[in-house]
Hints:
The protein contains 27 helices and 17 strands. It is of the alpha+beta class. The protein has three domains: about 1-15 and about 60-350, Kinesin (3-Layer(aba) Sandwich), CATH 3.40.850.10; about 485-675, no CATH class; about 695-835, no CATH class. Strands 2, 6, 7, 8, 9, 10, 11, 12, 13, 14, 15 and 17 form a twelve-stranded mixed β-sheet that branches. The chain has a three-stranded antiparallel β-sheet with strand order 3-4-5, with helices on one face. A two-stranded antiparallel ribbon has the order 1-16. The longest helix has about 70 residues, at about 630-695.
Amino acid sequence: MVKQTIQIFCRVKPTKSKTAIYSIEEDENVSKSDIEFVIPKDLADGFINNKRETYTFAFQKTFDQQVKQDDVFEHVAQGVVDNVLSGYNGTIFAYGQTGSGKTFTITGGVEKYADRGIIPRALSYIYAKYEEDKENIHTTEISYLEIYNENGYDLLDPRHEATKLEDLPKVALMEDPDQNIHLKNLSVLPAQNEEEALNLLFLGDTNRMIAETPMNQASTRSHCIFTIHITSRAPGSATIRRSKLHLVDLAGSERVSKSQVGGQLLTEAKYINLSLHYLEQVIVALSEKKRQHIPYRNSMMTSVLRDSLGGNCMTTMIATVAVDKKNLDESISTCRFAQRVAMIKNEATLNEELDPKLMILRLKKEVQSLKDELSMVTGEERTDELTQEEIDRLNELLRAYLDDPDLEASLEVGGDMRKIQYSYRFLKGKALERSAVTKVESPKPETERQPQESATVPHLSPAEIQRLREILQQRDNEISILVSMLKKERKRVLEAESRSIANGHHDNTAVTASSQPPSVTSEKTYLKGDYSSPNDKNDDVTNQHSRLKEVEMSAGRQEAFEIFKRDHPTINHVHDQKELLKRRYTEAKSLGQEVNEARNDINHLKGSLERLRRQMAVQSTMNGDDSFEEHEREQTILQNMEAAKAKYKQAFNRLKAMKAEIDHLHHLLDKSRVQIQHKFDTWWQTQATNRSKTSRHRPGSATSNRSTAQAWRTPPVSPEKKASSQRRKTDDITPPGPLSPREASLSRGRNALTDLRRNHNSDSDLRHMSTRRSANEHVEVAARFARPPSGSRSNALRTSSGESSVGKIPLTGDRETDADILAFVKARESLMKKQQKT
Length: 838
Ligand SMILES: Nc1ncnc2c1ncn2[C@@H]1O[C@H](COP(=O)(O)OP(=O)(O)OP(=O)(O)O)[C@@H](O)[C@H]1O
């Protein structure tokens, strides 16, 4: 048992503010560092002012603004992960006000690979440790829980496609008679390797993002718990070690009064404050040593984290603080909270248990061998016949023994003479069978062979044979890579199939999509920069989000999406990441070549060494000694081989790291893609709702038409850009950014086309035209025909049947737009006339 207080760390978020209102004092000797906040006295408060000016808090370590993610991982998380790998439970939780860097610390930033947070780094570390520890068998499972307004949601559920938080399965809290907490409905999914684990993290993060509602933005108001469940055991041993690592991103800790919110936000804020308040209550109760009752049950979060707080767990807290003036109060209260947390003592025990199944098997075996031993010792020989079950078991044992290529392999049938005799009979039978077969198949002596048989064997020089051997070796390597790729793919397909069967439908497209080799297609897709293609991702985890891409986009919507994407604030960053990804692929390719070359060098040197040693052996039998030069040559080859091995190892490790970076970049790109698509969908939905509301309020009126048209014409501006675009808004039909005259004219034509599509009762002729021309061409035609407003509506156009088109087309009242609409109708009619003539 390890008794330990909760370790507390502090991290200061980078700020642009120059005035330092804090200082950090390190004391390396006792691994402690203080952070001091200075609040200068405000003269406005008068001369007699007893307000404190400095606040000092002690932490295990305080990370200043410039400290990087790898440092934070090394100091905060590495030790905890090591303990979890040894069988202890661990928890790391981030606490601080909104925007102080909790998510950045726990999950990581989205801009750079180096910004990966504690979760991806912990996963990498765990799988690297598995590689080192070949003596034990490890299994890893992942779960991801979100707690929002006292309800738990499963972020990893593969059966549901979330578009809002309520779509995710609700997780219920259950308590067994021993007061252990169980989470019903929470998926605990296996992750065989780092890639699979990161995919799950990505799936959960994407669900978290997609399920955000305007009321629950940017995970600010929910708590998230990412749990890594580890099981390890030595082969054949009945002892299993099970441990859990909780990585917790808590909701923002600011007080309600400060958040200045109302309505739903106030309800949420109250819930968060309540759950953080209960967390505080638990912490206060734990720090008062005499308290009998700890109020864990008051909230879902404290119930889930029960073990992490005052229980069987090694827990670490990271307090995130923002040091600009306006956030100082909150930062001080975060640090105060941390000081109370530091008083809690946990008692972590090694989570070792015996696997009952393995235990029974072991005991049965032991009983059997004791029985056998007893019968040998007492001389009691059993004379009854072996049962069929015993014979089957013996046959199995004997076959396994014969198939084992290991010469040292032993056969244990126990002391029962019947079994021993049966084994002799079995082995003799096999030996006779084999000699009969060998006689039939034994090759004819050289003299009996037909002349052409030996003639077909080509005579090859040793160098040629060596070259062929190398090629053979290379092909073998390639085949084994392909076979492992195929195996992986087959597994993916089977998983996708079984998942789709579990969902109750066979989605062939999903299966075929996921059966593509991952790296190749994903590279193409990302480099192509096509965000909206329905087949652009083959990964079965991300396929779940393909629904966003699969939305059949109308030409207008597609066009709006293009503009939305173009103007989205993160698009430049996405382009940068794609460029980076491209560069990384090129680097990975050349690293791959380096690895191959180094491997070939090693093989070549191995061949040379073998030949030299054979030569030396022959020489020493003939001359009784080896020559000095040969020894020198051997040494040189060995040295070269060491160098080639070092080169290989270095290139291989670099390639491995590069692969991890490429995977991460793919995830970041995916995240951005889903985010942009999600924001666009939300925007589009709002436009549609506004439009239908407006037309319901004032049907058919000119103002109604005008505002409807306006709604559809409002440029697709992402929420972030809204504010600035509102400032520079001069004309409600102007798309974002300055437009060239041609663009402006195109845009007017496009708007006219959209209005026509929406307002014209019969759009059959439009559809007819659409079969011949693309939407943009129509727009261009319409724009070309656009004339300056020629005055009044009495300029009504007449259709070929003599009917006025204007009678059918509701105009907007906007002179310029109406001129565009009329121009478009004219264009359409002239086209139709031409068509009729031909
Ligand atoms: N140490 C840091 N280095 C660089 N950027 C940071 C750091 N900490 C935070 N940020 C940035 O500050 C912003 C807010 O951080 P983050 O989302 O992690 O805050 P949070 O505390 O999780 O907020 P919330 O409570 O809303 O979830 C993000 O854009 C993040 O990238």
